[in-house]
Write a structure and sequence with these properties.
alpha/beta; 5-stranded mixed beta sheet; 7 helices; about 45% helix; about 15% strand
Amino acid sequence: MAAGPNENRDKYFAMLQTALAEARAGLAEGGIPIGAALFSREGKLLGKGHNRRVQQGDPSAHGETDAFRQAGRQRTYRDIIMATTLAPCWYCSGLIRQFGIATVVVGESVNFRGGMDWLRENGIEVIDLGSRECVDLLAKYVNDHPEVWKEDLGEE
């Protein structure tokens, strides 16, 4: 029997908690609080990570890419769910599209909308949970460190 909408929503919120823990870990390290995790369709954790751009001095070390790298090679990504605290930027949206990750669970898209619409237009299921906790966590960081945030987005 297929899971109902509420069962899926509960499953997605549980996945988001893993990404949120990663976001908090990144913040504790002095980085941008964005976390992500990859799961199998059945909910098995494959990899998790957080934005390490500040910590590693690596502009490509976004939360989604860190989780993707930690998950390692997969035979296919068609049944993979990525949970991320923030709507993926264009760089991470490209990664999702390139490898055909089937579903993206987004914690919030208030602070940044990223490539959500583009992903949807390309057949990726995007579920925006509208998490107040995710919104507040990043909004405080952006307010406290606007120059780092602009750098992360490639803005001046």
